[in-house]
Design a protein that fits this description.
Bound molecules: pyridoxine-5'-phosphate
Number of helices: 10
Radius of gyration: 19 Å
Strand content: 15-25%
Order of helices and strands: EHHEHEHEHEHEHHEHEH
Distance between the termini: 62 Å
Shape: globular
Strand order of the largest sheet: 1-2-3-4-5-6-7-8
Length: 247
């Protein structure tokens, strides 16, 4: 796939983080998702974490109801969230590891070591019509297990590449390239994500067979900056309005 064909899935979790920080109703993840859709995003990703630290159940239902582009639900392989996915039925689900104390998803899912839990979950979700992806490190043993699970997609964890520099980063990129080749050879479609921003995406584009890149934190962070000028001007206009009304 040439880089012009790669799809962008926008992860809007941190719009909800901002909302949850104050317990307000704004900013609305649904409004943000609609803006992503209008701007050409190919999909919206949310992670319904077990601790509900950002995205809430109601967000997932509202997004599934309102979006025209596919919703990709990132989820832990646990009964409560699997049941919710089976109720909402988003177009895509991506199974990820989850630890409550982590800041963000650390490491990939141990599909090879957790076959007994992951394989039946893949089958249940796929039988209900969802496109299933497994978020894994670019490790050949894990990718073989993903192929055995019957999931059509893997999402390669790009975090290590994004967090390292120099020789270490070159090594991590090589692992991602080899991993993507291997996944493709095993018949898997290849997504990738985690930690990608405007400064490191050029290396990511060297990974072959990419279908979708899921990018969240850097887009939401950038949106805060590119939107700041307008937000301040709007508030100044409101202030002037108030002053004029009161005079
Ligand atoms: N893909 C997966 C499976 C993730 O868990 C995350 C983070 O929620 C992302 C992509 C997006 O990562 P980032 O927010 O660093 O762009």
């Amino acid at each position: 796939m040439s880089s012009t064909d790669i799809r962008l899935g926008v992860n809007i979790d941190h719009v909800a983080t901002l909302r949850q920080a104050r317990g307000t109703v704004y900013p609305s993840p649904l409004d943000a998702a609609k803006l992503c859709e209008q701007s050409g995003a190919h999909g919206i990703t949310v992670h319904l974490r077990e601790d509900r630290r950002h995205i809430q159940d109601a967000d997932v239902f509202a997004l599934q109801e309102a979006l025209r582009i596919p919703l990709n639900l990132e989820m832990a392989c646990v009964p409560e969230i699997i049941d919710l996915a089976l109720t909402v039925r988003p177009a895509e689900v991506c199974m990820v590891p989850e630890r409550r104390e982590e800041l963000t998803t650390e490491g990939g899912l141990d599909v090879a070591g957790q076959r007994a839990a992951v394989f039946p979950a893949v089958q249940r979700l796929a039988s209900a019509g969802m496109v299933v992806s497994l978020f894994v490190e670019p490790d050949l043993r894990q990718l073989d297990a993903c192929a055995e699970s019957g999931a059509p997609y893997v999402e390669l964890h790009t975090g290590r590449y994004c967090e390292t520099q120099g020789d270490e980063q070159v090594h991590e990129l090589r692992r991602l390239i080899e991993g993507a080749h291997h996944a493709h050879t095993r018949g898997l479609k290849v997504n990738a994500g985690h930690g990608i921003h405007l400064g490191n995406i050029s290396g990511i584009l060297e990974i072959p067979h990419l279908d979708t890149l899921n990018i969240g934190h850097s887009i939401v962070a950038r949106a805060v900056l590119v939107g700041m000028e307008r937000a301040v001007k709007e508030m100044l206009a409101a202030l002037r309005g108030t002053a004029e009304n009161g005079s």
